[in-house]
Amino acid sequence: IVSISDRNFPNIDFPEFYNFETLPVIGTFLSVGIKKEDNFFVEERLEKLDNVVKNYKKRHAEDKKFYVNDGLFFTSKKQLHDLNTNLTSPLTGLDKQQVTVLWRQGAEGIESPQNLWILGLLKEIEKVFGINIDIVGPDYSNPNWITMARENKSYDLRVSSVDTGTRAHPWLIEMMFCGKFGVSFPDLDDRICDFTKSNFEMELEDFEKNIENLFKKNIAVQPLFFDSMKKIISKNISASQLPKTELHARFENIELE
Fold first, then answer.
1. Does 219 score more than 50 pLDDT?
2. For 23-27, 146-150, 205-209, which range has the lowest pLDDT when averaged over its residues?
3. Does residue 105 contact residue 92 with C-beta atoms inside 8 Å?
4. H/E stretch holding 65
5. Contact criterion met (CB below 8 Å) for 73 and 165
6. Tens digits of residue pLDDT in 95-150
7. Dihedrals φ, ψ of 104, to 5°?
8. Phi and psi at residue 169, in whole multiples of 5°?
9. Contact 172/165 with Cβ under 8 angstroms?
10. Exposure string (b/e) for 89-125, b if CB count within 10 Å is 16 or more?
11. What is the rounded distance in angstroms from the CA atom of residue 203 to the CA atom of residue 182?
């Protein structure tokens, strides 16, 4: 089994393999480095940033290459929230302040449809806020680069992707917002983490409703779009036991034909 993260990669026509695509369970998010001492996006600018992102998404929601939604997880039903029209005018008098965006693919100049979409959003943020955006990648020469990326202290904005699955399981929310070993999204006022840690045993449907409501209020994290992953699989492996909701095949589910 070979996984290819870019679903736009052409199908490979080898007689001994078949092509397999997951559901759009890879979420790409824009988050704010709320712990950076001189972060440009202070609390009074977060609502305007939230509006800029939603405005861009509404205008670019029909791209068929991936799925633009406002939720924390992929859903086939479009969920694009209303805009605040009072927050659409550009800011003035900021003298082209430099703003740092941590984004590996952008720093590497990879021109996929997804990356071009994100670049368009960043240019719009530049225009509305009157700033200069500097896209940087992780410093792989630093042995603590993963920790630095997750601490939300060294950048103003971060573009990152995470395997969200299709359900808001408590363990998954804990990984995304509360732990040191996951994507470590910022959690304003710790509301998401406090709720998750106190309600691990709640019925999943009720838990999901509460988490979605809390996530809508956490405007330091903006969902951009959801994407799938392609796999090239040997024909002697049965596809019937490979869930489309999982990026990586579990060994116990692999069956030979």
1. yes
2. 146-150
3. no
4. none
5. yes
6. 568 899 999 887 777 788 888 899 999 999 999 998 999 999 888 888 887 777 77
7. -60, -50
8. -65, 140
9. yes
10. eeeeeeeeeebbbbbbbbeeeeebebbebbeebbebb
11. 24
